[in-house]
Structure formats: C-alpha cells, structure tokens
Design goal:
Elements lengths: L5 H10 L1 E4 L5 H18 L16 E3 L10 E5 L6 H9 L1 H10 L3 E11 L7 E5 L11 E7 L10 E3 L12 E2 L2 E2 L5 H10 L1 E3 L6 E5 L3 E4 L8 E10 L18 E3 L25 H4 L4
Antiparallel strand pairs: 1-11, 2-3, 3-4, 4-13, 4-14, 5-12, 6-11, 6-13, 7-10, 7-12, 8-9
Length: about 290
C-alpha cells in the first residue's frame, strides 16, 4: 500500500516539501535518541571538533559555546558508519519508502548527518539550498529530515520557502568567498513567505533539495536534534566530491542500477568542501 496519497504527492510537487507524521518506528526513534545522547555525553571530554571522517576531517563538530557543564554537540557527520540504527532508518523506514514513491523506483543513498541545537547553542543556519552544495546530473534529490526531538517554533525550527524548488539555483558565493549562504537581499525576500516546519519526535519532513531554507536560534532549554539524510535517483550522478563522505555513499536503497545517466539543465558555481568539520564555519563568513 502506498505511503503517499495523491494529495501529499501534489503538495510536494507544489511547495517542494511535506510533513509525514509518525514516519519513524518508535524503536528506531528510541535508537536514534540513544545513540545521539551517547555522543553528547562523550563530547564533554572534548574542547574542539574530534573523530575522523573518510577524508580526515572531524566527524563531531562542536558549537563555539560548548563546555563540559553545557555540551553543545552540533553535528555528527556520516553517522550511518557508526550507528546501525541510522543505517536502518536510511534503508528501511517509511520515510525512505515515501521518497521511493516520489523519485523511484531506483534510488540511492548520498550522505547523512545529525544536526543539533542544544540548549544554549549559538548556531543559526542561514538561507541556502542543499542542491548547490551537492549538485548531481539531475535534481531528483530529496533531503529527509527526521525529528529526533519535538520541533517547535522557538527551539531552532527550520524555515522553508514554498515553491522555491521551481525557481533559480542561487549563488552561495559572496565577494569571491564561498559562504554557503544566500545574499542578504534574497534571504530577506525568502523570510516574507517562509513556513516553519514543526512537529513531534518521529515526524519527518521530506524536502526537495532545491528548496531554500534556514533555521533559527534555539531559544529554549530543550534540545532540537535532527537526523538528516539525502537520497537521490539512481541515475543522478554526483558532480562534485561528497561534502559528507561515507562508505555507504552510492548504496542502493531501492531498485537496481539503471546503467544510464539522466541530466537536467542548470548552471551553477562550483561549491567548496568545508575545510573544517561542517559548513557552519563557512556560513559564519556570510554578510
């Protein structure tokens, strides 16, 4: 039986995102929470980003306000490599099945991460589009945002620009510097019609990777943690090195190898791989 009805499909096509309630099985959700809380506990033993991804950059990224009594772990890169629960969500969750209904039948994994805003975190995410960080030969690319915690309008909510997946691919460069953020004038226009993506733990937002989005400061004493992974059509070939490399990149989660490359027409500037643990420091350079 299909996960998505015709109304959900139509809504996704029109606005570029949909919310699926209770899309993550309760046992998987508990596993995600357990694994992330364990990494938070371990993070108090560190004062700077640590661990190692495939390319040698740190796996665990810390907010500038991180301290032992108030840990602020903000990013875990490629957690499928160190968490069987994360890998299970990617391979077998209802969320993945819903993506297959949208861009399948042949779908592959591209990358994953945890993004968290712990109480006292100083991190905001400026307006950007995921596709311009990770362009592929075609844009059948969906970002799956799993709510590991309840997400409210005050604890670091993601703001989405409806219909922006049908518009231009905006530059992430400012004055010859790759900032990973849209310029201020465009961002201000996005803010006028932005929609908050709120929900409870276990809900999932499916977002077309061309949708412009941002997220706000966590103003509460509750964490806001997201497990995020990206799935692409199997005939979409990555055009740049993976910014979040993983031994699982390219793994089929549905269907079979298509044996062909499909293209769509677009023209963008080359992105830059972060030199640090994540793109947060790149965005800090934005005006």
């Amino acid at each position: 039986m299909p996960i998505l009805d015709s109304e959900k499909r139509k809504l996704f096509q029109e606005q570029g995102f949909i919310l699926l309630e209770n899309a993550i099985d309760s046992q998987l959700l508990k596993g995600l929470q357990r694994d992330f809380n364990g990494w938070v506990k371990d993070s108090i033993n560190h004062s700077k980003p640590y661990g190692k991804m495939l390319d040698g950059r740190p796996r665990f990224d810390l907010d500038s306000g991180h301290r032992q009594e108030r840990p602020a772990l903000r990013r875990v890169a490629s957690p499928t490599e160190i968490s069987s629960i994360c890998l299970s969500v990617v391979c077998s969750s209802y969320a993945t099945q819903a993506v297959v209904e949208l861009i399948g039948p042949d779908v592959r994994f591209h990358h994953s991460k945890f993004n968290s805003k712990m109480p006292g975190s100083e991190t905001v995410v400026k307006w950007h589009q995921d596709f311009t960080f990770d362009p592929c030969s075609n844009d059948d690319s969906i970002t799956i945002i799993v709510f590991v915690d309840n997400v409210t309008e005050t604890n670091g909510v993601i703001m989405l620009s409806p219909g922006s997946h049908k518009g231009p691919l905006y530059s992430l460069w400012q004055d010859t510097v790759f900032t990973g953020a849209l310029n201020e004038d465009i961002a201000s226009e996005m803010e006028k019609t932005a929609v908050p993506c709120v929900g409870k733990a276990g809900d999932v937002c499916l977002m077309h990777s061309r949708v412009a989005h941002a997220s706000k400061l966590n103003q509460t004493n509750q964490p806001r943690t997201l497990f995020i992974y990206n799935l692409i059509a199997a005939d979409a070939i990555p055009l740049v090195p993976n910014a979040v490399p993983s031994k699982h990149a390219g793994m089929l989660v549905s269907g079979k190898e298509p044996g062909r490359i499909r293209t769509t027409s677009f023209d963008i500037e080359m992105p830059e791989i972060p030199k640090d643990a994540s793109f947060f420091n790149q965005q800090a350079q934005a005006k």
